[in-house]
Each structure stands twice: as C-alpha cells, then as structure tokens.
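ERR on first pass: missing label on line 2. Operator R.T. fixed the label and resubmitted. Corrected input:
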Amino acid sequence: MIKRKRIFSKAVRTMIAAAFAALFLMPTVLTMANSFMSKTEIAANYGAILDNASESRKGSRTFVSEKVNLKFIPDQVTFSQYASVLFRSPEYLLKFWNSVILVAPIVIFQLLIAALAAYSFTRFRGRIKEIIFFVYIILMLMPYQVTLVPNYLVSKWLNIINTRWAILLPGFFAPFSVFLLTKFMRRIPVSLIESAEIDGAGEWQIFTRVCLPMSKSSLFSVAILVFIDYWNMVEQPLILLSNTDMHPLSVFLSKINTGEVGLAFAVATIYMVPTLLLFLYGEEYLVEGIAYSGAVKG
Amino acid sequence: MKKNRRAKKRLISAVYLSPSLLGVLVFFVIPFVVVIYYSFVDNPINREFVFFRNFINVLQNEAFLKAAKNTATFSLLTVPLAVVLSLGLALLLEEKIPWKSQFRTFFLSPMMVPVASIVLIWQVLFHYNGAVNGVLTNFGIDKIDWLKSDYSQVVIGILFLWKNLGYNMILFMSGIANIPKDLIEVIRLDNSSPWAAFVHIKLRYLSPTILFVAILSLINSFKVFREAYLMTGDYPYDSLYLLQNFMNNTFQSLDYQKLSAAAIIMAAVMVVIIGGLFLVENWFGKDVEG
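pass 2 clean. output:
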C-alpha cells in the first residue's frame, strides 16, 4: 500500500517536472524548428501577426491563415532561410562578427583583471579590503537604469562614445567576476598557499602556480556566465553606439522587421550556437558558477 | 623587520588589486559621484546648488510616479512568485525522479535564447491574433489584446518567470545540498511530519539563499524591461510604462538633472530594500549560522 502510494507520487512529480520542462523548452524548440521552414510556410503560420506579410507575398494571400499556428515540425525541412542569411545577406554575418569582437575581449580581460583582484582579496584581507569588496557587491547589484547615466557620462568625458571602447572598457572592469572569483578562490585551502610560501615561492608564483590552476574550473564557470550576459546585450550598444554598423547581432536581431520573420528564426538559431555549445560541454561549470554566485554572505 | 614585511605585503596586495580598482573607480564610482553632484545643481554649466529641488521635481513628475508605481507593482507581484516557484522546482528535483539532469538542463535553457527570439515568440503567443488567443477562442473565451490591456503586466511577468526560474532553482539546489544531512535524518527519526521538517530545518537553512534569490529576482525584474521595451516601444500601454521607459525618454532629451535625481532615488530605494532584506534574514536565520 505504502509502496503504491510512493510510486504514484513519483509519477505525479515526474509529470509536473515534464510539464514545466515542456514550457521552458518551447521557445527554444520553436525557434529552431521554424528556422527550417520555408518562407511560404512561415507566412502561412504567422501571417495573422505580420503586418506586411501580404506585402512581401503579393498574390499568395490565400496561404495566410487567420490565426497563428504554432508548428513544431516543418512540412518540409529546408535550409533556404539559412542560405539567404549566409549568402544573400552579408550584414548578418558582419553583425555576428561585431558581437564576437565585443564579447571575446570583454570575457578575456574581465577574467584577467578579476583574477588578479580576486587573488588580492583572497590573500590579503583587512578592514579596508572588506569595505572595498562590499562596494564591489553594491555596484554589482545596481540595476542598469541606475548605472546608465554614469556610464554615458564617463564615455563622453573620455571621448570614447560611439566607439567600441565605450562598451569594452566598462566591460573589462565589471565587478561581477571579481566577486565570483573571490568567492571561489577563498575556498582554496590556506595550508596549500602557506606551504608554497614556505617553499620560497613569491607572490607571482603562488598566483600562477597555485591559485590559477586551482581555480581553472571556476574561471571557466565565470567565463560562461559573463559570455551569456554580454552575448545578449541590448541596452549598452543602443545608448553608446549611435553608428549601427558597429552594433552586435543581439541588437540588430531585435530590430528585424516583421516581414523577415523566417530569416529572424534562422539568424537567432545561428546566434544560439555558441551558447548551445557552452551548454552542452560546460553545463557542470555553468551550474557551479550559478551556485557560487549565490554566496553573497559569508 | 616584521613591519617591513607587512608593508611589502600591503604593497603587493595593492599592486594586484590596482588594475581592477582603478577601472572600477574611473568607470563606476567617480561617474556615480558626479551624478550625485549633478542631482544637486541646477545645470552642469551654471552649477548653482539647488538642494533638493531636482528630487522634488522628479517626485512630482507624473510620468515618474506612474513608472515607479507600475514598477513597484510588477516587482511586488513577480519577485515572491519567482522565489516560491523556483524553490518548488528545486525541491521537485531533490526527490527521486527520473531524468533529473535533463530536467535541470531544460529549466536552464531560457538562458541561451537571444532576446530577439524571446520577443518574437512572445509576440507569436500573445498577439491579438496570436496562439494563446487561438486556444482561448476554442474554449469560447473572448480574445484579449494582451499587450494593450491590463493583462500586459501578466505577459511580461510570465516572461520574467520563464527566464529566471532555472537560474534561481540552481541557487536553491546548492542551498539544499548544504543542509547538514544528519539534521534531516534526526527530524525524520523524530517522526514529525515532513511539512514540519521542511519549515523548521530546510527553510531556516535556506534563508540566506532565499534572501539572495529575492535580491537577484528584484534586480532581474528590472532587467526584463529590455524585452518589454522591445515589444512595446517608447510609449507602451499604461500599466507597462515602467522606470526603464521613463529613463529612456528622459535620456533622449538629455535632461541631466532629472536623470541624475531619478537614478539616485532608484539607487537609494534599492539600497534600502536590500538592507531591509538582509535584516529580515539575519533575524530569521540567526540560530543556524555559525
């Protein structure tokens, strides 16, 4: 009797989890599935919400259905949307490259600067250090609406507004990874560092030979989180880069007009590939990184 | 000799910290101090000290008040929901169920969807002729123009929950993993109900995590306006006119005084709320922290 009850509650739990999973996955799956549909099929499914769908497809309005159909399996799998993106619309590839040259340096330099700072916060603790660390946490927690004005002002003074530096430089120094890496590094056993010290290792050696190798996985965790955050940036380029030629794909994609919904799905899928790879190969690191980001106290 | 070594240590520590500290000062702290200064003068050129006039102006500005009220309503409704639901999901995955790690991955998947895709799909779902209304009409319910009605906050609320529950769930899962196992065992042997065990042990041990998830959700409830803005533009339906819209519109007219004062008010409110949450947590979880 008790056993039967247990099996029943297990089934219920699994079903609840499955229902949530379906809801959570739906947009991802929908984006990918729709990217393999032909332009006609997209127009037929989404015609009801596309203002200019009829304009782009004159004469074939009969295809357009009155309401939206959510379709997860294309009638016919086609790569035509991808072909248009790759061969006929070079601007998408340019914007993709824009994203890369904004995000890659930010991830690399933010981690480098943060690793040095985290070492300092780990190795040498004192009242002043704790106060500085607290300021970092406060800065990290400020919403973008608050930092927007200071952000704009400083790039104007330094005369870097409308250049990539306006996004790169604040990115290099963002306090988030300092906070997270410090949390990780403080977990390294003090005895390990002390024994290296007794062996006559200098600070640089302790940093590069002990602390960095010990934090390899945490560096990777932080890198994934920073990457995801900046890969999807929208506000900063809109405010700091008036020249749209420099905009990353995340911004450009959001301005795609409704007539090109099919393309939008294909571009979005392409844009998801790097994050998807990180998910497939680095999920453990991602989860560990998130788990540690919760340790604001202690 | 010893003093010398301490001084040397201090110097080295400063050297390692300096790149980050310099950058943080130049790009975050100093401009923020200037913004505080701007909020107390009449304009950046004249620089006449006007005390709290800018603040009073902002607080009497109808657009700001509306934006603040809408934002507060949104956060008050969604943040507790985000905490409860993500704790529920974490507890669900703590139980013995199959495909646990797959479920975890699926719950995290919203993190990788580009903003533009999210916006597109939400429009497909909640447009007047969209999928949700399609389902509703099948049940004989009248169509709702989701984004142009009082339900607009619900639409954005769902988006917020969808996007953030996975991340919060991971935080709770790691919090649950840190509860001493023998304590749970003791309660189980005590033969008290699972509900009592949950309230007395789990919730208390989880209180730092609850605090952090609440703070994080609060901040993320501001971030979701990125999607809201892309969906509805500069002047959305009344109940979706949020602080982000106010800041953006003020920004376009480059009214530094209004902007600075509004930013300072927001920062102050954030500090008060976060400080308050810390106090509540300290009181609630005091006997389990050592």
